[in-house]
């Protein structure tokens, strides 16, 4: 029915927008990034003895 086309487009837009927001929120809260403290502890400092 052509009379129902705007309502179905609106429902389709709402469904796709809600799934986009849902996956974005899930990606933000479920992915645990590696902590930068563990990567900086691997570097060892060396004392340089400069011969001038």
Question: What does the model show?
Answer:
- This protein has 52 residues and is mainly alpha-helical.
- The protein contains two helices and no strands.
- The longest helix is centred in the middle third of the chain and has 26 residues.
- It is rod-shaped, with a radius of gyration of 27 Å.
First-to-last CA distance: 89 Å
How many E-type strands? Answer: 0
The global form is: rod-shaped
Task: Give the SSE order as H and E letters.
Answer: HH
| Uncertain regions spanning at least 5 consecutive residues | none
Structural class: mainly alpha
Report on the biggest sheet: none
GO molecular function: proton transmembrane transporter activity
Subcellular location: Mitochondrion membrane
Family: Belongs to the ATPase protein 8 family.
Keywords: CF(0), Hydrogen ion transport, Ion transport, Membrane, Mitochondrion, Transmembrane, Transmembrane helix, Transport
Q: What tags apply to this protein structure?
A:
membrane, mainly alpha, 60% helix, transmembrane
Task: Give the topology.
Layout: H1 5-30, H2 36-40
Subcellular location: Mitochondrion membrane
Subunit structure: F-type ATPases have 2 components, CF(1) - the catalytic core - and CF(0) - the membrane proton channel.
GO cellular component, one term: mitochondrial membrane
Summarize it.
It comes from Epeorus herklotsi. GO terms for molecular function: proton transmembrane transporter activity. The chain has helices at 5-30, 36-40.
């Amino acid at each position: 029915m052509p009379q129902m086309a705007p309502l179905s487009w609106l429902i389709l837009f709402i469904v796709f927008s809600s799934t986009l927001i849902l996956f974005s929120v899930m990606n933000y809260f479920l992915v645990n990034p590696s902590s930068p403290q563990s990567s900086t502890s691997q570097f060892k400092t060396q004392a340089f003895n400069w011969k001038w």
